[in-house]
């Protein structure tokens, strides 16, 4: 059955409360990054939120499961650190997007994934989980009092419903942000078309950033995410399918104000951990993003990141738990450790070499 035929058979419905609480699991991998980008660079928050909302719905309907839509974190981290300008971020996203579109359309990742052993994929998932834990700790320690409040709220609500605990933390955080900003302020997001200058595409720093992101996207956003979607939801979406959709959305949306976007196992794990079981979670989150962009962009910018850190830790825990279902712990743990300290892309390709060597010397 062709992929286009497979996805049509999935109905997009919303299951309450799981798809509502599950939507939060993906947002905590997005909101801290986009808020930091908006605060520390020339990226405009409102159109970024709109595009995340649009593609949450588009890919939820397309794949028929709670697929994630996240920032390209390697590029976002460089922009937050000041190593990439907003124009450089856009150029690197377009380079990575074009490469992913070609790779997916030609079936390159499908051929590559045949050489990727399960321990390597699990190691990539563990690496992402460890990076999320590190990020969560950094966010939580920006305000230990608010982080403590988030833990207390989550613990109290978890007595009744573990899945609702994240939603409760988000509600409390939103209330605090509303008090700080004084209420909602409707805005009209701007979507002026702008392409980076040719010099940015030829810049060595831009090319290096795109290559680093591609390594991470192949390992986590395509191969590992396809495996997780199959494991959690029985999805038949392949790594090539996901690469194609990542390429398409970046080539379309980055020139119109989006930041580089990808799929990711962290967001899928977050959705699953907090109850998402249908693509309705994508519809819920997509609508919330667009509403936030139009009516509450200031509230989103003021959201206490320390409280998001607590929810992000729960997402990381779910992904780490999944990653330990492996055939070879040494390779999985090694890839995870290398991913934390040297980057997910380096860990992925290093894991490929180690796994091939193991299978050569210890054939089953």
In short:
By secondary structure, the chain is mostly helical.
List keywords for this structure.
single chain; mainly alpha; two-stranded antiparallel sheet; disordered N terminus; 364 residues; 2 strands; 74% helix; 19 helices
Task: Give a written overview of the molecule.
- The chain has 19 helices and two strands.
- The chain is mainly α and 364 residues long.
- It has a two-stranded antiparallel sheet.
- Residues 1-10 have low confidence and may be disordered.
The main β sheet shows up as: 2 strands, antiparallel
The helix tally amounts to 19
What's the overall geometry? globular
Low confidence ranges:
1-10
The assigned structural class equals mainly alpha
| Strand percentage | under 5%
Radius of gyration, CA atoms, in whole angstroms? 19 Å
What's the arrangement of strands in the largest beta sheet?
A: 1-2
Oligomer state of the chains in this structure: single chain
Q: How many beta-strand segments?
A: 2
Spell out the helices and strands N to C. HHHHEHHHHHHHHHEHHHHHH
Q: Roughly what percent helix?
A: over 70%
What is the strand and helix layout of this fold?
Elements: H1 3-8, H2 18-27, H3 31-40, H4 45-63, E1 70-71, H5 73-81, H6 86-105, H7 108-113, H8 118-140, H9 144-158, H10 162-181, H11 198-202, H12 204-233, H13 239-253, E2 261-262, H14 265-273, H15 280-295, H16 297-301, H17 305-323, H18 329-342, H19 344-361
Antiparallel strand pairs: 1-2
Helix pairs in contact: 2-10, 2-14, 2-15, 3-5, 4-15, 5-6, 5-12, 6-12, 6-13, 8-12, 8-17, 8-18, 8-19, 9-10, 9-17, 12-13, 12-14, 12-19, 14-17, 18-19
């Amino acid at each position: 059955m062709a992929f286009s035929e497979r996805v049509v058979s999935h109905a997009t419905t919303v299951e309450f409360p799981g798809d509502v609480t599950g939507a939060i699991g993906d947002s905590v991998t997005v909101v801290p990054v986009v808020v930091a980008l908006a605060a520390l660079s020339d990226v405009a928050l409102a159109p970024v939120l709109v595009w995340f909302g649009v593609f949450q719905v588009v890919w939820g309907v397309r794949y028929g499961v709670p697929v994630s839509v996240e920032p390209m974190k390697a590029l976002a981290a460089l922009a937050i650190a000041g190593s990439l300008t907003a124009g450089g971020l856009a150029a690197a996203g377009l380079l990575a997007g074009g490469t992913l579109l070609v790779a997916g359309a030609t079936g390159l990742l499908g051929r590559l994934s045949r050489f990727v052993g399960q321990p390597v994929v699990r190691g990539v998932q563990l690496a992402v989980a460890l990076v999320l834990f590190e990020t969560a700790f950094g966010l939580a320690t920006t305000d230990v009092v608010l982080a403590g409040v988030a833990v207390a709220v989550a613990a109290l609500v978890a007595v009744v419903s573990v899945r609702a605990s994240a939603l409760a933390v988000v509600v409390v955080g939103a209330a605090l942000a509303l008090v700080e900003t004084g209420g909602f302020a409707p805005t009209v997001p701007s979507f002026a078309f702008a392409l980076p200058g040719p010099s940015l595409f030829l810049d060595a720093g831009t090319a290096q950033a795109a290559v680093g992101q591609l390594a991470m996207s192949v390992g986590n956003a395509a191969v590992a995410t396809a495996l997780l979607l199959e494991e959690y939801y029985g999805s038949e979406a392949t790594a090539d399918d996901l690469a194609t959709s990542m390429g398409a959305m970046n080539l379309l949306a980055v020139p119109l104000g989006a930041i580089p976007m990808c799929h990711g196992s962290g967001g899928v794990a977050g959705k699953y951990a907090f109850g998402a079981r249908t693509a309705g979670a994508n519809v819920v989150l997509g609508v919330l993003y667009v509403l936030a962009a139009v009516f509450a962009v200031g509230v989103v910018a003021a959201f206490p990141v320390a409280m998001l850190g607590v929810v992000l830790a729960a997402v990381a825990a779910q992904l780490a738990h999944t990653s330990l279902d492996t055939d070879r712990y040494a390779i999985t743990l090694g890839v995870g450790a290398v991913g934390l300290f040297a980057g997910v892309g380096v860990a992925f390709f290093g894991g490929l070499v180690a796994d091939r060597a193991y299978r050569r010397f210890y054939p089953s």
